[in-house]
Prior knowledge:
- The complex is a heterodimer of chains A (384) and B (505).
- Chain A is an alpha/beta fold and 384 residues long.
- Chain A has helices spanning 7-12, 29-32, 46-54, 95-102, 332-340, 345-361, 367-383; strands at residues 64-69, 72-73, 83-84, 108-112, 120-126, 132-142, 147-156, 160-170, 175-183, 189-198, 203-210, 215-224, 230-239, 244-253, 259-268, 273-282, 290-299, 305-314, 320-328.
- Chain A contains seven helices and 19 strands.
- In chain A, strand 1 and strand 2 (72-73) form a beta hairpin.
- Chain A starts with 6 loop residues before the first helix and ends with a helix.
- Chain B is α/β, with parallel strands linked by helices.
- Helix content of chain B is 25%, strand content 33%.
- In chain B, the strands form three sheets. In chain B, strands 4-3-7-10-13-15-18-21-23-25 form a ten-stranded mixed β-sheet.
- Chain B starts with a helix and ends in a 6-residue tail after the last helix.
- The chains are: A alpha/beta (384), B alpha/beta (505).
- At the A-B interface, strand 18 and strand 19 of A face strand 23, strand 24 and strand 25 of B.
Amino acid sequence: MIVPRTAAEEALGLSLPHRRMEDWKWTDLRRMVQAPYVRMPVTAKQADVDRLVRSSPFAAVKAQRIVFVNGELDASRSSLASSPSQALAVADDDVLLQINRKLEARGATLRLEGNASLPVEIVHVVTDDVPRGVATHHRIEVADGASATLIETYVGEGDYLSSAVVEVALGEGARLDRIKAERESVRATHLAFVKVSLAKGAILRDFTLSSGAALNRQDGSYIFEGKRADARISGAYLLGGKQHADTKLVVDHTVPSCTSRELFKVAMDGQSRGIFQGKAIVRPGAQKTDGKQSSHALLLSEEAEFDAKPELEIYADDVVCGHGATSGDLNHDHLFYLRSRGIPEKEAKSLLIAAFVGEAFDGIEHEGVREALTAYAEGWLARR
Amino acid sequence: MADVETIELVKDIDVDKYKYGFETDIESELAPKGLSEDIVRFISNKKNEPQWMLDWRLEAYRVWLNMDEPTWAKVSYPKIDFQDLHYYAAPKSTPAPKSLDEVDPKLLETYAKLGIPLKEQEILAGVRRQGERSDLDGESGGEYASGKVAVDAVFDSVSVVTTFKDELAKHGVIFCSISEALRTHPELVKQYLGSVVPQGDNFYAALNAAVFSDGSFVYVPPGVRCPMELSTYFRMNAKNTGQFERTLIIADKGSYVSYLEGCTAPTRDESQLHAAVVELIALDDAEIKYSTVQNWYPGDKDGKGGIYNFVTKRGDCRGPRSKISWTQVETGSAITWKYPSCILRGEESRGEFYSIAISNGRQQVDSGTKMIHLGRNTSSRIISKGIAAGRSDNTYRGLVSAHRKAINARNFTQCDSLLIGDKCGAHTVPYIESKTSTAQFEHEATTSKISDDQMFYCMSRGLSEEEAVALIVNGFVRDVLQQLPMEFMAETQKLIGISLEGSVG
Lengths: 384, 505
């Protein structure tokens, strides 16, 4: 069956995935992305950029910064030099990578060595202008034995499509604490793709906040390439209005003796829709794998919706793998307990929601970052 | 006890030998190979069906022509040539068995081998009529009151005989083949057939609707608790046939029925196709318990032959406080593609799914359930135990969804997989969709192997490796075994032992 291309597909020069495709059954990109987004150079007002940079939840965290404004490196605002990234070399047929390539993504290439004392923050700013496509593609390498903290922040105003690709390679015994905060414009579409490879003994702590964009889809691919590596991947959604956030994770155990943990906390208000698709693969021979995954959803309004597909694909027998998924509203007993102690309903609810979401922040080692996220969640709760 | 029996059984049987792999040499009447409107007419004509039934079949056939074979399941097999199959096979000597004496003795031998209860065989063999006293009753004390089972036996495409009809009729329960029901109770069939699984529901359901040859029909009138277990034995015998049976069970207001199906097939090199449809309808306060012990021929060690089991099973909890419970033990078939589901439409209705799926050799299982919550205060429970051994693949695929109006829907799901050996695969693919904040869904899945500690413990107490595995596996599936009717629990434990033989060491 031939379906005529939508305006968005014409503009991007490719076919967008739709709900008849298994990975996109809950996020019909063809239907949801209608406007023709193309790459378009614009001049940003400095005051807007300043305001947006300051609006990053991590503005107060001391860090080395690299700032991308409307998809282009802004060297004047960046305190860290990085070699510009070449056009995407990987011959991957993933549609999110194709979109990134079509929008001629720019990006940074970073090689992190030794034990960095300060986190590195890559700030992505999009200013309000004509609807357009903005794309970045970064490559991060953490050298053998090195340890670093990487923050990615996405903030913006107006109507745009943001395509964010990040490739991360962790060397032997390396450690990376990666924190991503998606605080795009309420009218924006955020399409992210992250690919992380872990060498022997590498440690990854990965956290993603999804809270800004009208439509957020992120595909994560985490590949264990060396033994005894350990990854903890967590995330929090704070959604309201008609927001739609969909995370698809693949944790691929190709070698023995690795550990993976995933924890996603989804809080949904209004008519928002949260989706979590997590898949753990244990390849033949990847014995002694220890993999656990859990996703929990809190539906704060009658019209919110949660969909989950936690998947296991296992080809080795000596493994311990499991997943859990729950969804529901606030526990009425907990609420009753708090209210019987004189706490007003709204406040009691906020306390419970904060505690629910806060669990996903617990794994973040950097205190300043954790506090900034907690403060952001409190602000979100106060606004709801 | 049962575990010891399991071991004994395993010892008796050589690896790679399928207990039910005999072929009964009975002349059978076959429709010509291939599928066309004429074949559909031929089948309908053979069964003397009313015009509306033929129209219904033809409509299904036309829908089927425009459908594609589903490919989303995690199974792989050579493409099926649907024109290379016989769509109708009937044992020649019994075109329409009116009296039991007409039954071919070779058929009865078959049922004896299948382990149909002795008293049933007596009836089948025409030694005594239904309702007559049997010599066998002497020792057990007269009336065959306890543990009796009414059997509907389906041989290839045709229902051969149904037992205990008279006694069931006393209670108003209708239990007969679906072709008979079409003659005697057309209004019931017309009202309910296809109301749960419509003709065009999916590729195999459409195929079934077009060419289904027979199956069982059950109607339990309001307020009646069916006095005995109802059971169907399916047996595929003729070569190159597809078996397409259709089961329709209606539990009217406040009634209860427990139904069991068992399946076997002879050993053959080529694969046989089985595409059944089962529809359950539970009206207000009614309860249906449906149990399956599926032991079709799984193919040989190298994956040659075996049954392709593509089945659509769905229950509709139509009335308030109704309940449908599926219990399945899946040990056979080369390929299993089966998702017994519940539509929870009535308020406070309940759906249950208990499953043991065992795969060994080159078997591929893709099975699970769907719980669709539509009504208020509906609840469901899913317990699935998958055991993969040899070079098999075992997938649980399920959906739990709550519609916006399904206030206070509840689900609990537990999927456990056990891997025996490092050449097999165990997969879990659950879908959870919640459209209301008042729905509470919990899903849990684990995958593990038999721990060395457990093995060491058992073996240090004198059990052999195989005995230890059988013991531990039987413990692993205990939650589901308990859901089976008493009569079949012991049998199933043995079956588990047989299915896993050759998987250790």
